[in-house]
Amino acid sequence: MTPEHEQRLYQIIHRMVIWDESRENVLAKLEVNGITGPQAEAMYARAQAERIAGLRGNAVRQGVAGLFLMAAGIGVFWAFWEWVGDITRALLILCFVTTLIGFWKATEGVLGYLFAPTKRGSLADEE
To answer: What is the pTM of this model?
Structure first.
């Protein structure tokens, strides 16, 4: 099998794993194309590792966005409290809601990172 053919086949397998096709379907596709045994397992493992890396990348971005929202809410509260000495009720509510949404996003990011290997469904649904 030529390297170009193997690369094309890997791209097909990679798409199948990204779309969360079953392991059996992916290995059957490889077997039909003449790749079996350890080589097929290695291709599947590589595609699965790339899927998990993509999920974890999305989770990290979400977690960082959550941390920035938390920092913004806390920073505005602190700035008004420290420099102005007072904060209006509307601004207090805005700071609280921003911090709460940031905490939620950061928690979602951490949990998404930790549970990426168990995540089901297409990666296209994540973005």
So the answer is: 0.81
